Amino acid sequence: MTAFHQLPQEEQIRRLERVAKSALAQYPFAPDATLSLINLSENATYRIDSAGERFAMRVHREGYHSERAIESELAWAMALRRDGAAVTPAPIPGRNGKLIQTVAHELMPRPRNVVAFRWEDGVEPSEKEHDLSSPFEILGEITARMHLHSMAWKRPPGFERHRWDFDTSIGNKPHWGSWRDGMGMTPERTALFDRTVGLIGIRLQKFGQEPERFGLIHCDMRLANLLIDGQVTKVIDFDDCGFSWLLYDCATTVSFFEHQPEVPRLIDCWVRGYRRVKELPAEDEQEIWTFVMLRRLLLVAWIGSHSETDLAKSMGDEYTASTVPLCEDYLSRFG
Fold it and tell me: In terms of CB atoms within 10 Å, which end of the chain has fewer, N or C?
């Protein structure tokens, strides 16, 4: 059987839909419930319409997270909601009472983990359509509340999430593949990026991983994972949450548009909002661009290893090309 990731995207979507349809029977949905694909990236996410209600269903990618890791993700997201630190989607149990359903299908070599959530209304903010100054201040406040919650929260026994440090991001053990395999790489770009990676590593080693700087965070606070519903900003998609530097959450807010001229102003807005809730030392703030560059090169790697996805195709070689001046500027300012 051909490995799933080697199949054409159309065939992947067809098989995942079969799994999702099979999963419907494991939840208390109406017999005529329907599903529609929202997004295919690490996981496949569907909208479920059932008896006048809406839900979201996530079919997990094979081998990315263990069942225990998914349980850990849900535990933190539910605690954030329960404790009032952030509005997060509420998972719903299947007919067997479990939040994680295991769904086997003849088209898949191994069963897939599936989680369903109550639908959260809201609109994703866009850097092209909105003045993001106020949303970024609010985002800074929310992030600070999440960080304070994480630092005080007693994690359940066996808690398991990825660690996003230098080695597992752009070093020797990357979760998302090597930045060297990004789209549009040339010998000149490889040499430039390599020098940038080296400087990032030096600065992060000096910055350290003390508890006030490193802990459990969302790790993907980009605009696509926010929903604005009136006066409420909701945080979704905790699939990448794990252990990293707190300021990495700041860097992820500008994911995929780090090179745009408004980014420094938006980061200032985020910092202003963050400081309304939690202390941020000036020396920590000065290192934010190291985390922006860490994230940028991590996304170069992600695009290269996820070249079949619509998002990667939309970014393509141009994203790598526009990373060049960011690296040159970073080396000039911090090297």
Answer: N
Residue 166 token pair: 């230098």
Tens of pLDDT along 152-205?
A: 999 999 999 999 999 999 999 999 999 999 999 999 999 999 999 999 999 999
Q: Are residues 68 and 158 in contact, defined by beta-carbon separation less than 8 angstroms? A: yes
* CA-based R_g, the chain, Å: 20
What is the rounded distance in angstroms from the CA atom of residue 241 to the CA atom of residue 245? Answer: 12
pLDDT of residue 2: 60
Interatomic CA distance for residues 227 and 190, integer angstroms: 37
| Structural domains of the chain in order of their starting residue, each with its CATH number | 4-118 (3.30.200.20), 133-334 (3.90.1200.10)
If we measure between CA atoms, which residue out of 25, 330, 106 comes closest to residue 203?
330
For the chain, the farthest-separated pair of C-alpha atoms sits apart, in whole angstroms, at 61
For 105, residues 6+ apart whose C-beta sits below 8 A from its C-beta are 15, 18, 19, 22, 111, 112
